[in-house]
Amino acid sequence: MSDAVKSGQATHYVMAPKRSFRPRLTLALDTLGAWTLAIVWIAPLLFAVWAAFHSTSDAVNFNLAGAWTLDNFRTAWDGAPWLRYFFNTFLLVTVVLAGQLVVTTLAGYAFAQFQFPGRDVLFIIVLLQLFILPEVLIVENYVMVSRLGMFDTVFGIGTPYWASAFGIFLMRQAFKSVPKELDEAARIEGCSWFGVLWRVYVPSAKPTYLAYALVSVSTHWNNFLWPLIVTNSETTRPLTVGLSLFGAPESGVNISVISAATIMSIAPLLIAFLLFQRQFVQAFLRAGIK
Amino acid sequence: MNDLARYERRRRIMYGWMLLSPALILLSLFAFIPSAMTFWSSLFSRGTRRNPSEFVGAGNYELLFADPTFSKVVVNNLIYAGVTIPVSIIIALAMALWANSKIPARGFVRTAFFTPTILPMIAAANIWLFFYTPGLGVLDQIGALFGFGSVNWLGRPETALWAVIIVTIWKEAGFFMIFYLAALQTIPPDLKEAADIEGASRWTYTRRIVLPLLMPTTIFVAVNALINSVKLIDHLFILTKGGPSDASKLVLYYIWELAFSYFDRPQAAALTVMVLLVLGITAAIKFIILDRRTHYQ
C-alpha cells in the first residue's frame, strides 16, 4: 500500500517527489513539538541542578560562564541533620513496605482463593478505602495514632498505610491468575495453606511484588502531609519534612543552597529511576491498570 | 464423609477470616473508625475551658457555610480541579502520542516527560520557587527580555492559584502519559493501515479511532486526576501557604489549618465530612456507572 493509492485529496499528490513530502513534514512537526515540550518539561529540574552547582549571584544572573562549586552542598549539608533524615526516610519506606507486603499478601490470598460467606461484601468495603484517602482523614488519624501511643514514631507514620486497598486489589488479581492445578498439586504433596501461599502463590506473583514495591517506595519517599503532622522531632522526621523546614522562607536560606538541598534529597530516587527507568514505568503501569 | 466436608468448609471459612483479619483491623483503625469519628465530632461544638463541648447538630456546618474562607477555598478547589484535570489529560495525551511516534531521541523525550512524576511535591515546589521569585526568578528574567515588568507571581491574588496549578500539571501529566502510552500500544496496527487505505487523514484517524479506543484510559486518568485535585496540596506549604489572603488556599490545606493551626477540630471535621461525601459520590459513579460501561475492555 503506497501513499499514492490514497483516495480523496491524496490523488493530488500523484507526482512522485511530493509523495514522501507530507509524512516527512509531519515527522518534522512531531519532532519539533515533542522536543519543545520535553525541554520545557525537564528545564526546571535541569535548572535547579545547574543552580545548585553555582553561586547565588551566578545563578540568578544566568551567568553561564560562572564557576562550578560545591559550596552550596557544603552549606546545605551543615544546615540540617540530613544523614538522620535520610536514615529516617529509609527506615520509613522499609517499615511501610514490609508491613504492606505481609498484610496485602494475606488479604489478597484470602480474597482470591478462599470461599466464605460475606467475602464479596468485604471486598467492596476494602475497595471503599481507595476513596477514603488517608490524606483526608488527617485529623482523626492523628487522634488515633496519638491514642495508640505512636505519635512521632516511624510506626505512627507507617502503619496507617499497611492495609493498602490498592495493594490488596493488586495481590488478589495476581493470585487469581495462578492455575488451580498448581495449588491442588501442592496440597496433595502435603503443603499447609501457608506452604501453598509461600511456595506457589508468592513466587508466581514476583512481577507484581516488584511493581508494588517500586510504587510504594517512591510514594512514601515523597510523602509529606501525614509525616508532617505525626512527627515533631529530628529522630523521626523524614526527608520531605526536613526539606520543607530547611527551605522555609523564615530560615532565610538562599536559592542556590535550597536547590542544593533539593537535589541532594531527590538524588537517590532520581538516580535509581534513571538507571531502572523501564522497570519504574512498567511498575507504575502494572499498578495503575487493573 | 459429610462431616468431613463440613469440617473442611468450616476450616476454610476460618482461614479466610484469619487471613483477612490484619487488613480488616488496620482498615478499621485507620479508615473506618476515623471516618465515623469525623462525622461524630462534626456534630459537637468546640470545647473551651469555660464552655465544655456540647451537641450542636448541624451547627458546625452552618458555621462553615457562613465562613467566607470556606466558600473561597471551595471555589479555589473547583478552579484547581476544573483546570488541572482537563489540561493534564490533554498534555498527557499529546505526550503519549508523541512518545509513541517514530521521532528521533524518543527515549530522552519519554524520560523528560516522566521525570517530574518521581519527585516529591516539596522538591517540585522548591524548584518552581526559583521560577516564581519576583525580580530574580526565571520567569521575571524571561519577561524582562521582552520588556515586561517584575511580577510577584506567588504574592498576587490574581496569579497565586495559577502558579500552584502549573506546578500540579507539571507534576502529574507525565504520570498520566504512561497510561495513554500503554493503551496506544495495544491498538492494532491494522486499524492505521485500514484508515490509510480509506484515505483518512491523521486527524480523522486520531479523532475517530484512537480517541474512542482510549476512552477507558481517559476515565481512569480522570478519576485519578480528580483524586489528585483533592490531595495534591504539599506544594502550597512551600509556595504560598494558601495566601495571599486565601487566594490559593485549597480545601485539604484549609482542613489542616483549621485542625492544626486554629485547633478547631469540629470545623475541620465538618469540612472533612463534606470532602468524604464528594469522594463517596465519585466512588459510586466510578463503580456503578463507569465500570459497567467499560466492560468491553
Automatic annotation (TrEMBL), chain B:
The chain crosses the membrane at residues 12-33, 78-99, 111-131, 160-182, 209-227, 268-289. One of its GO terms (biological process) is transmembrane transport. The keyword Transmembrane applies. It comes from the Bacteria. GO terms for cellular component: plasma membrane. Pfam families: BPD_transp_1. PROSITE patterns: ABC_TM1. The keyword Lipid biosynthesis does not apply. Keywords: Cell membrane, Membrane, Transmembrane, Transmembrane helix, Transport. Its main location: membrane. It is found in: Cell membrane. Residues 74-289 form the ABC transmembrane type-1 domain. It is a multi-pass membrane protein. PANTHER family: ABC TRANSPORTER PERMEASE PROTEIN (PTHR30193), INNER MEMBRANE ABC TRANSPORTER PERMEASE PROTEIN YCJO (PTHR30193:SF37). This is Sugar ABC transporter permease. It comes from Roseinatronobacter bogoriensis subsp. barguzinensis.
